[in-house]
Specification:
- There is one protein chain.
- The chain has 269 residues and is mainly beta.
- It has a single domain (2-268), classed as Porin (Beta Barrel).
- 6% of the residues lie in helices and 60% in strands.
- It has 1 helix and 16 strands.
Length: 269
């Protein structure tokens, strides 16, 4: 009898903590985390990218709502500043709409596994010289394992790009993520919690096209190793990481990525 009570209590605690301290996603990759029904997530974030003489800083605000316990949706509103040898520009970026549905979940004692599909629609809404001038889509599939000690995620995403008014189309892109995490010190729910992350991120892009003609200096593959951290305290979290390129096979004459950095603040209501 005591064993049954103990198992039931642990299962209940696992269920309760799975939406709080255990609800993590990677910094750069895609994870299966969704909000509880009626939950609101406010997420300001900063992205910095440098590739040769090209630099871009994007500040975005994400607002997410939990439609059900397995389905969330939201909006991303970015502001960007970018520069290269020909000059600089700044303004509102392309607004995006996104949704994620967790279609499988398995709970155990102190652990949880889940899978989700994600869809993102980038609208053609940016100021001149900031956006791509196209409406594009992204489809993703992700798996996650979370426990009191270890974390692991994997994801596969595909971005579909359209042609702008000038006849230019960026190549479609395939993204792959493999992530591991570790909690060095176990803490209670009311205490601050830290998870250290290491990500392997790959991006493979098709050739760009201009009026149906492939452009030689475009497309190819880049691989990144990305150390990061996920710090949480109750319903507030900080995520940060740096993408460091470790291998690339870019076609023609292109500037490879020097680094990318990301800082995310999450507040659950």
């Amino acid at each position: 009898m005591h064993t049954r009570i103990k198992v039931a209590t642990l299962s209940l605690l696992t269920s309760l903590t799975s939406q709080t301290a255990m609800a993590h996603d990677p910094v750069f990759g895609l994870g299966p985390h969704v909000l509880f029904k009626g939950g609101v997530e406010i997420t300001p974030e900063v992205h910095i990218t440098k590739a040769g003489d090209k630099e871009k800083t994007e500040v975005a605000m994400e607002l997410t709502y939990g439609l059900t316990g397995d389905w969330s949706a939201g909006i991303e509103i970015p502001y960007a500043e970018q520069s290269n040898v020909s000059g600089s520009s700044s303004g509102q970026g392309d607004l995006s709409l996104f949704t994620k549905y967790r279609f499988w979940r398995k709970d155990g004692l102190g652990k949880q596994e889940s899978m989700a599909v994600a869809i993102k629609l980038k609208t053609d809404s940016a100021d001149n010289n900031i956006g791509t001038g196209t409406t594009d889509g992204l489809l993703g599939l992700t798996y996650g394992y979370e426990s009191r000690d270890w974390y692991r995620w994997s994801a596969l995403r595909y971005r579909f790009n359209n042609e702008n008014d000038a006849g230019f189309r960026q190549g479609n892109k395939l993204l792959f993520d493999l992530v591991g995490g570790i909690r060095m010190k176990k803490t209670g729910y009311l205490q601050a919690d830290t998870v250290w992350l290491i990500e392997l991120n790959a991006e493979s892009a098709q050739y760009n096209e201009s009026n149906g003609t492939q452009l030689a200096n475009s497309g190819g593959t880049e691989w990144f190793v990305s150390p990061g951290i996920f710090w949480t305290k109750r319903n507030f979290a900080v995520k940060a990481g740096v993408q460091v390129p470790v291998a690339s096979n870019l076609k023609g004459n292109q500037q490879a990525t020097d680094y990318r950095a990301k800082l995310v603040l999450e507040w659950h209501l």
